[in-house]
Design goal:
378 residues, 56% helix, 20% strand, single chain, alpha+beta
Length: 378
Amino acid sequence: SYLFAHSFFFFGVIVNVITIELGNFVSYVNLGDMGMVIQQIFFAVGLAEKMNLLHEEREAVQAELIKQLEQNDHLNRDLNHKLEIKVREKTLELEEALQDIQQMNDELHITLDIVREQKHRIEQQSRDIKDSIRYASRIQRSILPSLDLLNSFLPQNFVLFKPKDIVSGDFYWFAQKGNKIIIAAADCTGHGVPGAFMSTIGNDSLNKNIEFLGIISPELILNELHKDIRNTLKQGSEMEAKDGMDIAICVIDTEQHFLEYSGAMNPLYYIQNNELNIIRGTRLPIGGAQKEGKRVFEKHTIDLNLPTTFYIFSDGYQDQFGGIEGRKLMSKKFREVLISIQDLKMTQQKEFLEDYFAKWKGNHEQIDDILVIGIRLD
């Protein structure tokens, strides 16, 4: 349109120029005006077309935007619907989970009530058992010989007796028969209640064989003790029990001034002239399995014309873990301790051994019953 408008305008101008040259001025004026009018008409038509095109483009853009908005709205509704479904699903899952948690919580409360009740019963049973064991300890101690009696026979003595538990598998025994004083230190299989039962059997056997049957030779006492243990526990039968004990027995002849010793596993330490001597026991226990036809225990005799201090004991003291490296004390160290305290009175030796043991043990648990008997004969 703009091109046609300018064409008519320039055509009118050219014609006017030609007519001026020819001398027709009127024609020049009329054609120039007509060209301008036609130019304006075409300008108007072109502007109208341009406006129509812009209007159509705007409507197309608006239509596209409306379409896009509708699509977005549809997508939003679809997403919201899906989101609502997911929310409902998750809500149901959470509700189910909360119900499960509530059920578990209820069950846990029930379980806790049961546990509390069982804990109360166990604590009550534990108290009852401990009370029974404490009562058994009083019975066991009442069975053991009176230390006052030992002091009346042998004033220079000590008995270090320290059970691991309330009752002990270690026990001591002594008696007087005429001019003989019999002393025993025994270490039964196990400790606690099982060991205490064994100690009762051993105590009864010693009472029977020495007090009633009058057997006073240490090796014969061990022979009879071995028979009694095997008979009582039915060892050698189908119901054979392997339990037994290690024991050291000393018989002091106060007139002839000698000491007879026999041991089943457990040794005798004695000190004369500041020299420690060891007599080892027969390497056979009391009770348990017996492969040999007859069990024989050796007897050893020591002259007491020299001042003598002797010790019989269980293995609890020397087997205790402790020290800087947490190792066992061992028999060598135990002997060194005994030699180092020979200048002390027997009561002081006991105190020293107790203190030394406590320091050695430290924070370690006591692993076994402890029994050490020391006697000085001047």
